[in-house]
Amino acid sequence: MNSLVEKINLLKKEKNAVILAHCYQNAEVDEVADFVGDSLYLSRKAKETNADIIVFSGVSFMAETAKLLSPDKKVLLPRLEAGCFMANMINVDSLREFKAKHPGIPTVCYVNSTAAIKAECDVCCTSSNAKDVVKNLAEKAGVNEVLFLPDTYLGKWVESELGGKIKVTTYNGFCPTHLRLRAEDVEKSRLEHPNSKLLAHPECHNTVSALADFVGSTKEIMEYVHKTNFKEYTIATEKGVFDRLKRDYSGKTFYLLSEKLVCQNMKWNTLDDIYNALVREEHEITLDEETSQKAMACINKMFEITQPVLVR
Fold first, then answer.
1. 3-state secondary structure the chain
2. How much of the chain, in percent, has pLDDT values that exceed 70?
3. Does any domain span residue 143?
4. Are residues 191 and 243 in the same domain?
């Protein structure tokens, strides 16, 4: 076993820590992770533990969400500068300006947003429950329009999935990694791998989503592979998902739709960074109480729609 892995695992026990790894991370991080998955799943799993410390191998908004759900735990981000390009495309001032242009319209924010943004919105959503959240919010508010931020492509995909019955007015944010894909990439892949099922994330450009065999969240893409018996799959989301599927399903063949599907911010965290964060207990995530309460209310509103409320 890697000596660094051994050191990290020993430190985890000594400090009663839990390590979370988002599946866009370098696959080596899984060697020390207690849980691997998408961001909200990881935060919820950490909440269920009796750990004193959470080390979140991901990006800053994910660590903030973990802190919101586990306010009494110390949350560490191995690389403090690991931010999300999409989440950073909106701030409180630009959000308020967006809302002012559409007064009285309820607001849905994607979980890929900062705590400060969540604190200013009505309800949060994930890529897997966005359709249910948008539909429920519009029905309860008695309106046929919602504001959606920061990802315009997820918002417009939801609008399409709901048959255009609810207008989804989107903020002009996007994921640069997913937006590197174009319809011609799909067409080229179809020619090269005609029997492969193409699985895309809804953060992709709508022209890509429209050509996919399946569109779903990171978790849903991985579950689709697990539940189906096709021999070939083409992955249209961040390379970390491809790496893990290729590792875990040796009897199936996987293709990455484009070598450009790499989020450099997600790849910053290394085993060395995790070790240093644990040793020094550095890069702690802190949130003020007012922001935390408002942001948690936004998250709890989502759970009211999709599952039992997570009280603080």
1. CCHHHHHHHHHHHHHCEEEEEECCCCHHHHHCCCEEECHHHHHHHHHHCCCCEEEEECCHHHHHHHHHHCCCCEEECCCCCCCCCCHHHCCHHHHHHHHHCCCCCCEEEECCCCHHHHCCCCEEECCCCHHHHHHHHHHHHCCCEEEEECEHHHHHHHHHHCCCCCEEEECCECCCCHHHCCHHHHHHHHHHCCCCEEEECCCCCHHHHCCCCEECCHHHHHHHHHHCCCCEEEEECCHHHHHHHHHHCCCCEEEECCCCCCCCCCCCCCHHHHHHHHHHCCCECCCCHHHHHHHHHHHHHHHHHHCCCCCC
2. 98
3. yes
4. yes
Number of structural domains (the chain) is: 3
| 289 belongs to a structural domain | no
- Residue for token digits 């390009």? 85
Q: Which residues contact 293 (CB under 8 A, 6 or more apart)?
A: 312
286 within some domain: no
Cα→Cα distances 1→20, 21, 240, 251, Å: 20, 19, 22, 26
Name the nearest CA neighbour of 188 among 222, 221, 234.
234
- Read off the CATH number of the domain in which 194 is found: 3.40.50.10800
What are the backbone angles phi and psi of residue 198, rounded to the nearest 5°?
Answer: -95, 120
Query: Model confidence at 284, in pLDDT bands (50, 70, 90)?
Result: very high
State which residues form the domain around 249. Answer: 178-256
Q: Do the domain assignments include residue 311?
A: no
Section 20-34 average pLDDT: 95
Q: Do residues 100 and 249 both lie within one domain?
A: no
Q: Is the pTM higher than 0.85?
A: yes
Q: Confidence band (pLDDT; 50, 70, 90) for 310?
A: very low
